[in-house]
Design brief:
The protein starts with a helix and ends with a helix. The model has no long low-confidence stretch (mean pLDDT about 90). The protein is built from 5 helices and no strands. It has one domain. It has about 130 residues and is mostly helical.
Length: about 130
């Protein structure tokens, strides 16, 4: 059963809200040593989820453009979140998060690139074998 466009929008807005809250609060110490891996995994999974929701089953130019648009959106989202974390340090008396970290952006983009590589391989194999 396919989801309606309204359901897809609701899912994306809900996950976006949860993500913003998650990125704006400080991680518990248990996770802080895995910060870069978490950035990589989040952006990999976000790209997977958005591509799953918005791509059609066939490999078309439109799907490729959607994939590129999703990657750019997520990349800019990651930059925005890092800037928002830094600004929050100046807006609140109590620090709710760390500082702007270019390495986080690097691992965000790495997760997107890794997903894109797997996505392209999947689409090529699917096209070659008519699956």
């Amino acid at each position: 059963m396919a989801l309606s466009k309204l359901n897809k929008i609701f899912i994306v807005l809900t996950l976006s809200f949860i993500s913003i809250i998650g990125f704006m609060i400080k991680l518990p110490r248990v996770f802080s040593q895995h910060d870069k891996a978490l950035h990589f995994l989040f952006y990999f999974c976000a790209a997977f989820t958005l591509n799953f929701l918005w791509s059609k089953p066939n490999a078309t130019v439109a799907n490729f453009l959607k994939h590129i648009a999703i990657a750019f959106f997520l990349g800019f989202f990651g930059i925005f979140i890092e800037i928002a974390q830094e600004l929050s340090n100046h807006l609140f008396t109590k620090r709710i998060h760390g500082n702007f970290d270019p390495e986080d952006i690097f691992f965000n983009i790495l997760g997107l690139i890794f997903f894109s590589g797997l996505w392209v391989i999947y689409k090529i194999v699917k096209k070659l074998f008519n699956v």
